[in-house]
Amino acid sequence: MYPEVETNSLVAKLGNLKTIVQLLKAINFKENATCFGTENGLKITVEDAKCMQASAYIPTHVFQIFNLKEDVIFKVNLNILVECLCMFWSNINCQGSSVALQLFYKGNGHPVTVLIEEDGIITDCSLKTQEPDELLDFHLEPENVLNKVVLQTELLKDILSELDSSSDLIELFLSPSPPFFRISTAGLAGICHIELPHDGELIDNFQCTSTATSSYKLTHIKPAMKALSCANKVSLRTDSFGLLCFQYMVKTDEGHTCYIEYYISPVIDPDE
Known about the structure:
The protein is mainly β. The chain has 5 helices and 18 strands.
């Protein structure tokens, strides 16, 4: 039943399916995803129109088995993969249920094989892979980071639930002086400002070097909020070009830490 391990470029096993389901659902806003297997672990990346990019990171130590002959990269249909894994979602959340996942990939042109094992019963899924598209290299150079805020996810949930969904844009204001941290929208209900405390108990870290105001499409911000349901903390960073990064810290049931990152490009001219 199990593929020949030695013929595969990548063999990985997770003892708990819940981890990968939560991570993949959090970045599942487009049909396809590009998967990278490196000595650091597994990275799954989704990109939209070259202006937003999301990645889920599963470090090597989270896996029970992670054997890699060489770095691999392939594209899969994320919708189908999530649909397959979610067939076991109710079982994952049952007390005492054990659902494990194994992943096998031989290399270019080969499908990726996913084995899901529950109480000795094995389900075999084979997904076609495609040549990956070229992705933009979204990253924040440390010397260009202007502002960094680390906060508890419940605070961000509360804020975003109050946003006017009829607004096209969301404006982010960060400053070392009052009002410090403000989120604004302009929709059918008029202009709305939400000011956040920079030193409250739900703010773990507030580092602001200069005043910066940038606007982003609300349709780009909303997918980035999907990770709030499984994350413990979120780091919000912006650079001198207005590039916005949400980094979510996700704790597994075993106490390991995985990460989800969303990069969102600013709207250059909000009046256009």
